[in-house]
Structures are given as structure tokens and as C-alpha cells.
Amino acid sequence: MEVFGQLRPAYYEGALGLKTGDTVNAGACLISMAKRHGVEVCSVVMGTSKKQRFAASIETLDYAFEKYALKKIVKKGEKVAKPKVLQGER
Fold first, then answer.
1. What does 74-90 look like in DSSP terms, one character per residue?
2. Which of 46, 44, 54, 45 has the alpha carbon at shortest distance from 26?
3. CA–CA distance, 71 with 55 (Å, rounded to integer)
4. Are the CB atoms for 3 and 11 separated by under 8 Å?
5. Exposed e or buried b for every residue in 2-40, given b needs 16+ CB within 10 A?
6. Contact 41, 63 (CB under 8 A)
7. What is the pTM for the complete model shown?
8. Where are any strands of DSSP class E within the chain?
9. What is the three-class DSSP state of 28?
10. Which member of 17, 29, 61, 80 lies 3.0 to 4.6 Å from 21 by CB, making a disulfide possible if both were Cys?
């Protein structure tokens, strides 16, 4: 996704979308989503300047993609446990 704004064009690999905002209490904000290797990440940046919100979001997304990965822990349809529900009905 390529974004053209007041400050400069920006590109982020795997970007799905974004929304900017600006309020007195929250300052300059940016919510952005990206997807890489089947993992979707959402970044919420608040309290930055308009010039820094994109860099802060890129830093947050990069961190998430570096530190987290999609892991399959059970197979589809596999039973993991039979939970007991207090005051539940069968």
C-alpha cells in the first residue's frame, strides 16, 4: 500500500489500511494494519507529532513482525480438553 499525504509519500510492505486522527487529548494518532506471512498486526500510535506518527507506527509494526510468528499448536478439529462449567447444563 502506498500512501500520499501532506508530509510525504509512504510505503509499507503488507499494509492493509490506515486511519489518521488528531485530537486535543490524544494528539496526532495513527491506526494501521499490515499482514505478512499470514500474520495480521494492528498498530495504534497516539500522542505523537504529525511528523512522527508514521515512523512510530512503522517501528511498532516492524517490532511485531520480528518478535511474533504464527504457530499452529493444535490441528483443526483436535480436542484439547473438556472444560467443566459450573452450574452448566449438558
1. S-TT--------TT---
2. 46
3. 28
4. yes
5. ebeeeeeebebeebeebebeeeeeeebbbbbbbeeeeee
6. no
7. 0.71
8. 2-3, 10-11, 15-23, 27-36, 39-48
9. strand
10. 29
pLDDT at 58: 92
What does the pLDDT look like over 10-68, one tens digit per residue? 678 999 999 999 999 989 999 999 999 889 999 999 999 988 999 999 999 999 999 99
The pLDDT assigned to 12 comes to 87
pLDDT score of 11: 78
Reported as a single tens digit per residue, the pLDDT across 71-83 is 889 999 998 888 8
Tell me the residue type at 74.
V
Residues sharing a CB contact under 8 Å with residue 40, sequence separation 6 or more, in sequence order: 16, 33, 34
- The answer to whether the Cα torsion of 58, 68, 34, 49 is positive or negative is negative
Instruction: Say what the pLDDT of residue 5 is.
Output: 53
CA dist 1 and 22 (Å) reads 22
